[in-house]
């Protein structure tokens, strides 16, 4: 039996240029996020329960090998890196799923992924994996155990409710970090993994979808109820605030913090917020 | 999970096979230099680091003086991750409304073999550790050393870590575990119990500024950079301030005596905010956006506060050995750590070759340190840390010097210009400086510099 922990290599401390929207990442701060570490732990437990092999796999550049060495140290039997793009690409997860499965030599019985990644991932890759494998999928799990030849899971629902699932193999699961913590790797295994060779599979290039040029993040517009009034003219006036008596906005550039504090206090007094 | 701490206790182990010839604890400059030397000598070495990568936990806003790297890395300046080469050094004496700056620049420092550079510790430490790994060292990150392993005779034979099956046995343990070295304490190598008096708290803000703004405001171009040290900007708390230019950011902060800041009941960020508002500093950092805030302890006790450096099976280097020089215009640390680590690695390799890793067998470490700048400079300047952190130097002299210079430059027509002696007497009196203290401190300073 093959249990695959599909790990996403991402920078946990990536910075975004506020002007250009360009993402700056660093291999030193990159690795598996909390959800992916939980996925590895679940994969190890499932492999232990079923007496199978645990394979840690990722689609990423050579730097991602460090994350796979950590997985080997934690107890994964094998690791595999599927050659992927060095930079973050915008795609819907289907290309990652395709590359990942094409890179595997054997058909996995269980694939465990992290829930959506910390770098604003959509969490759709597990669904594409399940579709390609023809496996059942259980996504967004907070508990996952293997017993009696089946997998048992708990999924979080809206309103604080929980859904209990029992399903057979093959299966693709994605897990939230919840309270699952990756086991601490023993020191001898950690040292051995430092020099371990990570096999590389080249499963073709990623025909990823470009989502246009990178732009700064802008929150979605909030829908507000329309202003009352049957006439468009009245509604326009209400929206723009035109013809309403008001104090025009004033831009202040106080020279010192004391001046700034004085201006603020005066404003509060004028409007009755302060004595 | 257990972590090293003041109460950590050594574990006695039976004679076992050595996992490594040398275990180096801490992948800072000292640790990486030690591991590099041991690996180059052909011995196996583990470099244990508690952070996820070397430099992950280090705080630094200073200047790296890299000449010691001549012995370690040929043409290091072509490879070292440098932000800017320091071609301007300034010492600023300040009061809340005054500032006297001694400003020096030389383009000699902007070309090989260079003098000093600003660098980010995450980059610098990773680079140094990578050199050690390339030479054959095994880097073990995210691993905390929780204690020492000893044999029945009491000699150090390895370390215990927080990982399962986490004992690492070795011929020599080199403790480079930073300013609050629990390993050196556990080994009983600190002679004094007053460590807090020998520590300062460095607090730093990194402010993002466009490269063009830095070049314009600090009058530099290309990779040239500026290092400004300040005295008198800490409300009388023993310490000082600093301002360094990086490529597209500046590091500004204060260094405060630990006991002084505790007594003053003030917060370091208030002092930094005050420093940033100072009329001599505000124009330099205007518009800077804070991108990092960090703090770290610094061992500024100098030569007199150093622990024992050698034990049976153990050496201490870098901040763990208080090898940070804070003597007025000399503020150095990374170069001492590099030197000490390099000599520790050589001494460990020599002891392993001779088959004697006892304190006697490792004594070559002290000999090498004494023959080099590491202990020679510390011994020569051993009185200056106390003088720099003294109340008079912190509270009285900055005002006296600024008043004296203001009197010299101020034009009071139609009054005649006062003489230098009159100005000196007046500024000393106004700032509560007694002549005998001035003479005594001057003598201490001169004796330290001779």
UniProtKB/TrEMBL annotation, chain B:
Its cofactor is FAD. The keyword Cytoplasm does not apply. InterPro entries: FAD/NAD-bd_sf (IPR036188), FixC-like (IPR039651), FixC-like_C (IPR059103). Pfam families: ETF-QO_FixC_C, FAD_oxidored. It comes from the Bacteria. Keywords: FAD, Flavoprotein, Oxidoreductase. The keyword Oxidoreductase applies. Residues 391-449 form the FixC-like C-terminal domain. GO terms for molecular function: oxidoreductase activity. Belongs to the ETF-QO/FixC family. PANTHER family: ELECTRON TRANSFER FLAVOPROTEIN-QUINONE OXIDOREDUCTASE YDIS-RELATED (PTHR43624). This is FAD-dependent oxidoreductase. It comes from Amycolatopsis acidiphila.
